[in-house]
Structures are given as structure tokens and as C-alpha cells.
Amino acid sequence: QGGPLLWVMMMYCPMCWKPLLIPLITSKMSTMASTVKLLKEEDDQPVTTKFNTSLGTSETTRAMYNKTTIISKDKFNQWLAGLIDGDGYFGIAQGKYTSCEITMDIRDEKALKSIQDKFGGSIKLRSGIRAIRYRLHNKQGMINLINAVNGNIRNSKRLPQFIKVCYLLNIKPIQPVELTMDNGWFAGFIDADGTITYSMKNNTPQLTISATNKYLHDVQYFENVFGGYIYYDKSQNGYFKWTIQSEKDIMTFFTDYNKNFPLKSMKQSRFCLIPNYYYLKKMKAYQQPINTMQYKLWLKFNDQWKNYDNIM
């Protein structure tokens, strides 16, 4: 049996296999017959967790973890996992000191402060750019954070980093759960790598919600749950972009998801303007004479849209 976590372990954690191999070199393996018997007995054992399914069914696999971690269903923790998958980083210094870093726009200090309040850590300005960085390296704080997001980290770059940190902290990494509309991960990822914009096409406004990533499968989750489509953009060294543009898809995202899992970045202000956008679009306020109240409402909407960081 196998799975994405098994592949990641083989690629990034070769030392993790040592505990799996040593128990097999025992007196019971003195002959080929006893070896076959031992392996067969292990293969016949029942699997008790999803993560064990991906690694195999041997007792030695189960024995290499010291504690069981429960997947958090807390909305904040799900959101945090999505944010880390998009804008975060798990690191190890000197082979023993773990850390987590998240970089966001300076206007999103409130979002990073909410993480700091829960797990500790520091927030500092990035020199030369309009960004701030959250950093956590306290061991107990890292243990709490890893347990909070365990089972929801899934990004191609972040998952290998996460697994390395898990093993160093003696925490069992859990295979990512299947994403549904009842998971705050999407909100966190949009806070990190998503956009909500509108542009004029054929003298008509077109609203778009999108999320981008270098790898297709890292945005495929959005299409699977919310529909829309994905295309490849060759600019900026190439990336995949998921988008929804129809009023039906956007309003479904807003009413069925965003109201239950609001964003924590400045982008949420634009989501709050979605109903007003469609109200003004349907009356074609943008086409009315400049001296009418309808056109003035459109101008006011545009001021709010362009300065959305000031209306939170």
C-alpha cells in the first residue's frame, strides 16, 4: 500500500526508515521461511488510522510514533493551515530547532496578531518591503501549532517541511483530510494567495475570485469544491490560476462558504462588497449620467473597492 505521505517520506525523510528496518532484523529472520512468515503476519494486521494506511500495516510502523494526534475541526486552525500552505514556512535550524514563519502585507497585522495571541511568537517588519513577518520558534508553541494544523497541511512545498518538523518534535504527521466546503482551509489560502478583483470588459464590470500556485494540484482543491476553471499563466515563471466569474458561482462561494469562514485579511472587505456590486451592476449604475444618484453610488462603491483596507 502507499500514498502521498509515503512518497514524501522516501524523498525527504530517508532516515525515518531506519526505525522500520531495525525491528525486522531479529532472530525470527534466521531463515527465509521465518522472514516470509513475519512479513505475512504483519501484512495481515488491521489498519487503525488513515495515516497507517499510507505507510503500510506493519507493527513497526505503528511503534515509531509516541502519541496520537486528533485532527482539529476548529475553524481558526483550519484557516491557519491554509494560510501557512500559501504564505508560510516550516524550518529547522542546526538540526534541532524548529520554527514557523508567515509573511503577509503590512495591512494584515491584525491577522498575524491573532496567531501570536494563540501560539506566542513575534511579529516584525520586513526591511525594504511593505510586509510583516510572524515567527515562532518556542518549542512548546511549535508543538501546539503543529498539533493545531496537523491533518490540514497539504501544499507540495509545505508538506515535506511539516513532516520533518513533526518527526523532530515527536509528533505523528497525519495525512491531509479531504477538503469540503466545511473547512476553513480555503479562506486561509485565499488570504495568502487569492484575489478578488473586477475589471471592465466591453464596458461591463466583470468580477473574479481567484487563487494561484505553481503546481496544478495545489489549486485543484478549489475547482473540486467550488467549480470554476483553472488555466496556466506563463508570466512570472509560470503558475496555475483557479478562477470563478459567474454570478452564480461567486454568490455560492459568498453565501455558502465565506459567511461561515470569513477571511482574516484585508481582502474580506471586498467580499463584503459583493452583494452591493451585483446590485449596482444590475441597475447598470456605471452607465448612468454622471449627475444621477445611481452613478454617484457607483463612484462611492469604487472608492470603497479601491481603498478596501480603509473600510475594514
From TrEMBL:
SUPFAM superfamilies reported for this sequence: Homing endonucleases (SSF55608)
Superkingdom classification of source: Eukaryota
InterPro entries, A to Z: Homing_endonucl, LAGLIDADG_dom
Keyword flag Mitochondrion: yes
Gene3D superfamilies (UniProt xref): Homing endonucleases
Domain Homing endonuclease LAGLIDADG: 80-166, 187-274
Listed GO MF terms: endonuclease activity
Signal peptide: 1-17
Keyword Mitochondrion: yes
Transmembrane regions listed in the UniProt entry: none
Alphabetic keyword roster: Mitochondrion, Signal
Protein name: Homing endonuclease LAGLIDADG domain-containing protein
Organism encoding this protein: Monosporozyma unispora
